[in-house]
Amino acid sequence: MMTHFTTQTQTQTQTHPFSSKFHKKRLFFLPYFQPSFMALYILPILLVLSLSGAEAAVFTLQNKCRNTIWPGILPGSGQIQLMNGGFQLNPGEVVNVTAPKKWSGRFWPRRFCKFDSAGNGQCLTGDCGGKLQCTGAGGAPPATLAEFTLDSPVDYYDVSLVDGYNVRVSIEPLSGTGPTCKPISCLAELNRLCPVGLQVKRNGHVVACKSACLAYNTPEYCCTGAYATPDSCKPTSYSKVFKAVCPTSYSYAYDDPTSTFTCQDGNYLIRFC
User: Torsions phi, psi of 159, nearest 5?
Assistant: First the structure.
């Protein structure tokens, strides 16, 4: 189980470690990206860094889904709020979000949302209190999470299914070094594989998949009570379904060894779908 960054869902607590040094005084060398990628992603990042100072990280959020999503952002305890906690991201759209040194928090996709001109409304999955801008409110599970702790002393990051799944999510370091500094993802369409008892439906179609903890709220599934240690809380038949198709993602609360990755001095591309 991780430390430093703690978040609370409706039924369980997951703790995470996450943080990094950002001395961004070098250009990024990415020989395998096309010039269009360089123009679209890297140049805006360099501009943001030049304006915000060297000790900053840039999260580039890209919507590759066919429909609009509404990313939510929840900072760790004592951390500043980024982008007021949420915004609309249209299909194909890219937004850069700058975070200060030692920031920690999570990003998640909200789907099937409707908001009025004042930013009040509701999302079917990932809703944060009926607001466009979450401003410190967490997302209601199920939702796929991209989690980070920067400069602790390296960046820790993961894709988590502990709160369930609603959208495919990937994290790709755009800079940074380290033996586990590499792209990670959950790109399987888990809604098609979701066990019946975990399904969330809209108009007869599965649009999200609950965690077993959220669906059944038992100590065994939630890693609480007598199951609150790594030795006592083991993978279940449900978490094994998630792990089989998303092997680099957290499938349950103590899934640390194969699910946590680190970079030194990283910037990150977060793709939805």
Answer: -105, 125
Enter the pTM of the model. Answer: 0.81
Over residues 217-246, the pLDDT tens digits come to: 999 999 999 999 999 999 999 999 999 999
Q: Are 248 and 257 in contact (CB under 8 A)?
A: no
3-state secondary structure 21-57: CCCCCCCCCCCCCCHHHHHHHHHHHHHHHHHHCCCEE
Six token digits for residue 157: 């990051």
Q: Which CATH number fits domain 5-190+237-272: 2.60.110.10, 3.40.50.300, 3.40.50.720, 3.30.460.10?
A: 2.60.110.10
> Tokens standing for 54?
């060297």
* Residue in the block written with tokens 């369930």: 164
Q: Is it the case that residue 50 has pLDDT exceeding 70? A: no
Kindly report, residue by residue over 176-208, the tens digit of the pLDDT.
Answer: 889 999 999 999 999 999 999 999 999 999 999
